[in-house]
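Kindly inspect the following:
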Amino acid sequence: MTTLTTSLAETTASLASSNVISLDDVRSYAGCCNHVSRLLWTWRPFLDELWGAIYSTGASRAPPNCIWKQQIASALDWIAAFLAENVGSLTRSWALDRYVAPATDMLVIFDASPWGIGSYLVINGVISNYMLSKLTKHDESVLRITIGDPRAQQIVELLSLLVSLVIWAPILEHSKCQLRLRGDNVSALTAAVKLKAASGMMRFLARELAFTFSRFSFEPDIVQHVPGIANITADALSRCFCPATAYTIPKCLQQVVRTNVPARVASWYHTSSYAARQVA
């Protein structure tokens, strides 16, 4: 697939360099991306954007048989960023012993508060790891949130899930597993399923999820919504940094491995340049 990815990278850059793009060029480009999406399911939401622009019946006022670059700009940005990090041959490997073995049940339970994020990983019914992380000035800068402001709840809930999947990717990415995601925020769970959101920082984080899932050999099977009052352990983790109340690590996690969380500076994200153009 080396030739295809190299050609795609060049075509992506060429399309992004013009404000007006011919429909024939977009059709050809979308067709090439379809080939990649057969291997990488995380490309599919961005193909929807390409085909949607091709068959749009709205009055875009673009020249005849053309579209505006802005109609597919977010797809071009994401694909360019992906190809920049996957130079050369694009492969995915599945070890035979893992492929024929019974699927491992893996459950990520996550939550967030206006001050922090927390989650834990359950493998075949046993808690194996947990994480908690304080929201920082980096989160405020990149995601355009204010620490302590509950209006950012949906954003930090999705951030909690993203961080969980990134730090536990080495465990998840090559395993044949039934990956379940459990949380109390419907918007975050929906973004995890569709890998897209309406706009702003939710859309940015959904794109980052797509990057992370592109490393996995198997798709997530199930997302589960639970009432906030029932998400006790993950909620307690996320509130350990709450200034008004005293929360501690839940007893059920005190003998469990805590996974370190890297600083979420702008360079931690794959598409931070896209985030800079968004409205929170």
The CA atoms of residues 107 and 180 lie 5 Å apart. DSSP finds twelve helices and eight strands in the chain.
